[in-house]
UniProtKB/TrEMBL annotation:
Keywords recorded for this protein, A-Z: Iron, Iron-sulfur, Metal-binding, Pyridoxal phosphate, Transferase
Matching Gene3D superfamilies: 1.10.260.50, Aspartate Aminotransferase, domain 1 (3.90.1150.10), Type I PLP-dependent aspartate aminotransferase-like (Major domain) (3.40.640.10)
Protein name in the entry: cysteine desulfurase
Native source species: Pseudolactococcus paracarnosus
Lineage of source species: Bacteria, Bacillati, Bacillota, Bacilli, Lactobacillales
PANTHER family: CYSTEINE DESULFURASE, CYSTEINE DESULFURYLASE FAMILY MEMBER
Enzyme class: transferase
Superkingdom of source: Bacteria
Limits of the Aminotransferase class V domain: 2-361
Amino acid sequence: MIYLDNAATTPLLPEVVKEMFDVATDTFGNPSSIHRAGRAAAKIIRQARDDIAAILAVPSRQLIFTSGGSEANNQAIIGYALANQHKGKHLITTAIEHHSVLHAFAYLKDKHGFDITIVKPNAAGSLTADSILAELKDDTILVSTMYANNETGQILPIADIAKGVRAHQAVYHVDAVQVIGKLPIHPSELGIDLLTAAAHKFHGPKGVGFLYQNNLVIDPLIHGGEQEEKRRAGTENIVGIVGMAKALSIAHQRMAENDAKVAELNTYFLSKLDGFNFYLNQFGELNMPHIINLGFPGMNQNLLLMKLDLQGVAISTGSACTAGDIAPSHVLAAIYGSDSAKLKESVRVSFSELTTLAELTEFVNILTSILSRN
């Protein structure tokens, strides 16, 4: 298979598999147990937490392990809003966020009476710090944005937003799922109060992630135990946590090398499209090189994906969390309008450093064959 859907998930690195296997085989104790086997498991979790915290340059107790990015986003948004609603009930986010953010906002509005503002991209498709900060009110308590969009790769002006929010009572939550392991991130230096990540986006296992929180009061989503210092009940996924720490450590060590490789893949792929009838869905001043969103006029995206899949190529139409949902991309709809033909023509190609130039060459050859018959 030619796998080009790395923004959805990435394959496990062999070193990560080995680390997880060793822990799964040798350390089976419950980390909450006080006997030797439990203490051994707890020690491994502490080390993983310390390793991740060191990469982020934050105190280790500011990390809460979760089941992934969606839970971390819900914990950050719902947990903070409910615990701090006495300060105000106004929340701000953008129209291009992941559904785990947008649906959390909708839940707070529908079930708890919060006032929410959803900022739309400008005519050029980008989101500026000014457009977000202009929506701050006296009773705003939370601003939530992506670091980079999972469908188009657009990088938002995180530092500028954080600077503006810092002068307000609101806190700033950043969904960094598409960026962790690809760009250096130090939340405290950037002025980020809450930050979420998922291991499977940087060659770690699925079903595990984390929430960074800057010593805030947050209601837990899951009750029933004292794990994670009473902030997230449930026996810890020790194998997943170890795999996540190992994968992030490798990504951190190889960051410059991986970035150069992915940038080369991006440039090479676009050069191979010379002569194709296509357009790029690229917005803002900065974009993540591992994501390319493009459309082929007159070519139905679902038909294209099916034909590529039959020939062993995996790409997507956008967020993996809506795969199987026939609704068009809410990200592109926010930019082009819900009636635009581009919503049915656009696909996402996403690389990792494991992608090869030979794979891209073969992909373009297959794509040429399909489009020539359309």
